[in-house]
Amino acid sequence: MVEVSNANPLINTYLKYKWIFLSFVVSTLLMIAKFIAYYATYSSAILTDALESIINVVASAFAFYAIYLASQPKDLNHPYGHGKIEFFSAGLEGVLIVLASVFIVFHATESLIHPTLFKDLKIGLSIISLGTVINYILGYFIEIEGVVKKSPTLIADGKHLKLDAVSGLILVAAVILVYLTNIVWIDGVASIIFAVFMAWNGIKIIRKSIGGLMDETNEEVLEKVVDILKSNQKNDWIDMHNLRIQEYGADIHIDAHLTLPRYWNLEKVHDVVHEFEDIIGESFNSAVEIFIHTDPCLPECCHYCKIENCPIRQVPKTVDIDWNKVNLSLNQKHFLENV
């Protein structure tokens, strides 16, 4: 087993704290401004944006706690660390988005049935426009940081802020139309349209977080590992199977079965396994924990063994095994009859 980390965990955690705290502060200020805009206008569309901002604040607060918990070291109760709290945090944010969209639909429907006279829409338009720009810029940089740091929490928060910015564009267009045409129902319809869009994105965030909690394979990470193995494959690595990858927030856990020559001594096996682990671990910029189970080669492996002048070879090499994500993930040696 080896654990590799090519990035200082304290620096990574500090950067996550910085971005999520900035998100919390900005979301709080924008929420206050949007409610002021609502009470100045009584626009259903502006109320929609204000309610969505409450979610931003709550989600950012919980995300801050999630990042704190995820940074805690492994212990007896959590031998794989606390990283999965980030998936839970992202899922909670998705749930809050869906709940807010349901409330928005009810409020917008009521405003269509019992329309309210608007006040000064210019104030609301100015505040929503400013909030749209700020949210998109902040969300863009937070999502990028989340991708770099492999943080589901930051990615979800960044997507949420960008979603809030898209909502702002829709609502700004609706407010402008109401201002120009005096057709009040446009306000409610725009709110409902955005609520549906919001719910759909919330469901996608929930779906991804559930996948992370259930150790669903991340195809991007799996393909990266397979590419690393194929480009660095040694003749001594006779066979490999049962490759499994789990994500714990930003941390990655990899285990696999590696077939090596059965006539090697334990020291030689130990050195090759460490070389194997280092090749994989050094290719990631986050903490990687690797467990390798070694199997001795069997006579059936001779068909695809690449070792030249093997002292125990029984039959010549006749086939090549393509190390792809399907072959490497199978829980069996790749004997000739399985090729």
Automatic annotation (TrEMBL):
Swiss-Prot/TrEMBL keywords: Membrane, Transmembrane, Transmembrane helix, Transport
UniProt cross-references to Gene3D superfamilies, sorted A to Z: Cation efflux protein transmembrane domain, Cation efflux protein, cytoplasmic domain
GO cellular component: plasma membrane
Pfam families hit by this protein: Cation_efflux, ZT_dimer
A molecular-function term among this protein's GO annotations: ferrous iron transmembrane transporter activity
GO BP: intracellular zinc ion homeostasis
Signal among keywords: no
InterPro entries: Cation_efflux (IPR002524), Cation_efflux_CTD (IPR027470), Cation_efflux_CTD_sf (IPR036837), Cation_efflux_TM (IPR058533), Cation_efflux_TMD_sf (IPR027469), CDF_Transporter (IPR050291)
Keyword Mitochondrion: no
Domain Cation efflux protein transmembrane: 20-214
Transmembrane segment boundaries: 20-41, 53-70, 90-109, 121-142, 169-200
Top-rank taxon, per record: Bacteria
Localization: Membrane
Membrane topology: Multi-pass membrane protein
Domain Cation efflux protein cytoplasmic: 219-297
Matching PANTHER family: MITOCHONDRIAL METAL TRANSPORTER 1-RELATED
Family recorded in the similarity comment: Belongs to the cation diffusion facilitator (CDF) transporter (TC 2.A.4) family.
Name listed for the protein in its UniProt record: Cation diffusion facilitator family transporter
